[in-house]
Amino acid sequence: MECAQNILNILKCPNCDNGLYIKDKGLKCDNGHFFDFAKEGYVNLLLPNQKKTKNPGDDEIMAKARDIFLKAGYFEKLRNKISEMYDFSYKTVLDAGCGTGYYIKDIASKAISTIGVDISKSAVKIAAKNDKKTFYIVSSIFDLPIKDNSIDCIINIFAPKPQQEFQRVLKNGGFIIEVVPGKNHLKQLKETIYQQEFKPIVEKYAFTKFEIMASHKLTYVENISSISDYENLLKMTPFWYNGGQKILNNLNLMQITFDFIINIWRKK
Ligand SMILES: C[S@@+](CC[C@H](N)C(=O)[O-])C[C@H]1O[C@@H](n2cnc3c(N)ncnc32)[C@H](O)[C@@H]1O
Ligand SMILES: [Zn+2]
């Protein structure tokens, strides 16, 4: 999307923290730092010294697979639950670690402003093509180019959890909707890949400096209807590089458990 004034008001330059304004098909600050809009409409605010690798975050294979798998509907129940959880109509919502924008796109039709941030350029490129209402930024969520106390709600789904940075950008009383995998998430796949009984990792609460308001569970089973859906599911997870590639040809179509924990955290 075009960067609307209410979004501009809350962005800051990743170099010098000054405000940003639109100039010559990009964003500029008073110190002359300039970031051009990509043709898809997003902006890359990730500085070279903030990168640990050449292309950080999900690579193109993972991002494309995630986009196709999510669009096939297997996560629709989770998306609907999140979108229906709150009245987002007067809210500025940030999706931190937005991937291909599947969740924030749904909220965009209800909220005042929506912003998606991900360190993966491949994922943000897809997100910006999919969703013309949200403003997408390539950046690390550990160093957000967003002013203090400017966000009403952060959604953080299967993504890293920079709690200090979330505290800084959230308004007082602002909240986080966090989604983490439940203990049975994709358990049939894990058992097939690791060929042993699956011992789940017990998730610890991540946002210790926030107040927990609610915790919901969402569990359902889906028939994976084609080998290509399996391939995309494997490619969007670390399984692909840990034996997933090898087992694809021997997989029988099966039922897969989707298991999520949705935590709501309030800024104290
Ligand atoms: C498992 S994916 C989830 C994506 C999306 N929330 C979803 O559920 O479809 C994790 C995402 O976090 C992103 N990510 C990893 N480290 C990051 C960082 N430091 N800053 C921003 N995004 C990051 C990855 O590029 C990837 O898109
Ligand atoms: Zn600057």
What would your notes on this structure say?
The chain has helices at residues 5-8, 60-71, 76-85, 102-108, 121-130, 163-169, 187-194, 227-235, 244-247; strands at residues 21-23, 26-28, 34-36, 43-44, 92-96, 113-118, 135-138, 151-157, 170-181, 210-223, 255-267. With 268 residues, it is α/β, with parallel strands linked by helices. The strands form two sheets. It has an eight-stranded mixed β-sheet, sandwiched between helices. The longest helix is centred in the N-terminal third of the chain and has 12 residues, at 60-71. The radius of gyration is 19 Å and the shape is globular. The structure holds S-adenosylmethionine (SAM) and zinc ion (ZN). Zinc ion is lined by residues 13, 15-16, 18, 29, 31, 33.
Mind summarizing the main beta sheet? 8 strands, mixed
Report the count of strand segments.
11
Task: Order the strands across the largest sheet as they lie in space.
Answer: 4-7-6-5-8-9-11-10
Radius of gyration: 19 Å
- Fourth-level CATH superfamily: Vaccinia Virus protein VP39
Query: Can you name the CATH architecture?
Result: 3-Layer(aba) Sandwich
In whole angstroms, the N-to-C terminal distance is: 33 Å
Shape: globular
The secondary-structure class comes to: alpha/beta
Instruction: Extract low-pLDDT stretches.
Output: none
